């Protein structure tokens, strides 16, 4: 019995130790230490803040199937007095959403049920949803927000824009993105010279820094074979034939040639080609760089293309100018003399590889050139990249980090891949887009937002259905021929580079619209993009003006105002004294340059438009910087009457 008593006593001691360790261990829990520290912190604040009750705190978002215990340690999330406190007690920045409704891990990631720091951030074994670094946090917005412009998510918006513009869907399947138009390669052999093509294939951005064409890092041999392969395709789309160069371009007299070039320079300026095209770094960004085009394409192609753009590129958004034959010749003469790449060194004589066609075709398919470019002669499959529709859910153990020493996380992998695609494998085919560090982060954020997480429909914000306004008749033909919708939106369809024309006839007077088509000018000279002069005929101007007057109207903008001298005088006082409109607008050469001059606003704008614009500028142009002065109807009428006297 004595021996048994000793065993019993020993076991009792062990049991007592275990029973003592358990509460001691619970007392020293990491989260309790934070709560005690929090109560000590707020006790020393000048403001009165409710102390935390010691215990586990959690948010249960039933609809999102989430339990988050982050508030157990992050106790000051809603306390404005702790806006400058150190983590984990700092006030949460203001956001669109209620934390109680969405929880924490919906946006931040991590392991919501954990109560220790290491486990909560999710950087532990068998957990594939670690917290997103701050630079990538907007990726979570994209899980619910599918619209183009997500509120207060500039990085996500920029990333989605870059994914679209970079034509990532040419090689990768990504839901929600459309393939961008890229010039076809049919007829390229009759268009460009070999020196330019080889240099372009080796480094596109060296010729045109703003190009979206990536660098495929081709070897000299591959660039030679691919160029020789492409130059065999001399037939233009639909077998369009080239018209011969006009006689004016074949003159030999230097004096006559100089006169032709001078005339071409004038017409080129009047046509305002610089509104869409960059020329040596200056101009618009809608179309390609023209500063070196004479060293890229031959004169015959340039002449025929400007004469009829859609014959040689059916889907191009280039307007057809109404030049006379002599005007065409002078413009080409000017471009050939002015837009020359003097730094371009001609390649030495070249003997094509006997198997250049087969080798060039193999390179063409290897890098999936047909993903962006059309080339009717090439059929058969190309080598595509992996689908990226749900790349945001890729598991860390599925990623091959190669021999790199980067942090082994999905955001780090994506950003590194975007900056240098061959980092993880020298045999990779992904081209280099030349993204800056900020751009690579933005694209990674956009890709990380591609998630297969099941989100309840009530949380999803989907894009508005795309508009499909296609004008018909003679007006429709002119819109297509002049590529109006490449710059203007019409009833929701088009690109908003310039004015939205959907309510133009309720804004501008009919006679002003027709006069503007005849000789366009800039209302604000500081703007880069300006309306080109298409040299339209009177019948064409009538078709455009009459259609707009009947279709692009909004009845609710009509307003009749009884004008009198007293109202004009009151409006003048409001303009110059009470609201100081001259700070931004100019009348009679006096005033600011921020807004358009108002000297002739009475001849240009409809009174109804002026009235409604003054009442609420952002209702018609959300990005407008025109202040909303909260005018009464009477004040808006007085200002309208005064402005209509400016003719």
What does this structure look like?
There is one protein chain. The protein is mostly helical. The chain folds into 5 domains: 30-131, no CATH class; 154-173 and 385-459, Sandwich (Immunoglobulin-like); 188-338, Cytochrome Bc1 Complex, Chain D, domain 2; 473-553, Cytochrome c-like domain (Cytochrome Bc1 Complex, Chain D, domain 2, Orthogonal Bundle); 565-644, Cytochrome Bc1 Complex, Chain D, domain 2 (Orthogonal Bundle). The protein has 25 helices and 8 strands. A two-stranded antiparallel sheet has the order 1-2. It has a two-stranded antiparallel ribbon with strand order 3-4. Strands 5-6 form a two-stranded antiparallel sheet. Helix 8 (194-202) crosses helix 10 and helix 24 crosses helix 25. The chain is flat, with a radius of gyration of 33 Å. The termini are far apart.
Range of helix content: 25-40%
| Number of β-strand runs | 8
CATH architectural grouping of the largest domain: Orthogonal Bundle
DSSP summary: helix tally: 25
Question: Separation of termini?
Answer: 120 Å
Q: What characterizes the major β-sheet?
A: 2 strands, antiparallel
User: Order of strands in the sheet with the most strands?
Assistant: 1-2
Task: Describe the secondary structure blueprint for this structure.
Blueprint: H1 2-27, H2 30-43, E1 59-61, E2 66-68, H3 99-102, H4 105-108, H5 117-120, H6 141-144, H7 154-165, H8 194-202, H9 204-207, H10 220-230, H11 254-271, E3 278-279, E4 282-283, H12 299-307, H13 309-312, H14 325-338, H15 356-366, H16 410-419, H17 437-448, H18 473-481, E5 489-490, E6 493-494, H19 504-507, H20 510-518, H21 538-551, H22 565-578, E7 586-587, E8 590-591, H23 601-604, H24 607-615, H25 633-644
Antiparallel strand pairs: 1-2, 3-4, 5-6, 7-8
Helix pairs in contact: 7-17, 8-10, 10-15, 11-14, 12-14, 16-17, 20-21, 22-25, 24-25
